[in-house]
Amino acid sequence: MFLFSVLLCCPGGVKSCSLNCLAEGYNFYTERAPAVVDGTPCRDDSLDVCVNGECKHVGCDRILGSDVREDRCRICGGDGSNCEAIEGVFNDSLPEGGTV
């Protein structure tokens, strides 16, 4: 008897939007369903979501199919003109919470 855990995404040919289960302590998985529930994230490092078993792109504006991206200032849909460069040596500690 095997103990299985859900395998959400991994390299090596496993489809990110199918329901896969990995046998804990073993080197195999089994596909339990060809598609996960719509809206399931495709990957942990992305806003992309599964729809009808396929990974669909989501822009930073959180709209399905949108190509809007963050600029170098991390502003969604920005043009990079709002960045503020700060240079120097900082010796002061940040207050609790990490922002000034």
Automatic annotation (TrEMBL):
Signal peptide from the UniProt entry: 1-16
- Give the UniProt record's GO annotations in the biological process aspect: extracellular matrix organization; proteolysis
Keywords attached to this entry: Signal
Coiled coil stretches, renumbered: none
- Which molecular-function annotations from GO does this UniProt entry contain? metalloendopeptidase activity
Judging by the UniProt lineage, the source's domain of life is Eukaryota
Task: Write down the Pfam families for this protein, in alphabetical order.
Answer: ADAMTS_CR_3
| One Gene Ontology cellular component | extracellular matrix
Where the record annotates domain ADAMTS/ADAMTS-like cysteine-rich, the positions are 15-83
Cite the PANTHER family for this sequence: A DISINTEGRIN AND METALLOPROTEINASE WITH THROMBOSPONDIN MOTIFS 10, ADAMTS A DISINTEGRIN AND METALLOPROTEASE WITH THROMBOSPONDIN MOTIFS PROTEASE
**Mind telling me what this protein is named?**
ADAMTS/ADAMTS-like cysteine-rich domain-containing protein
Question: What organism, scientifically named, is this protein from?
Answer: Hucho hucho
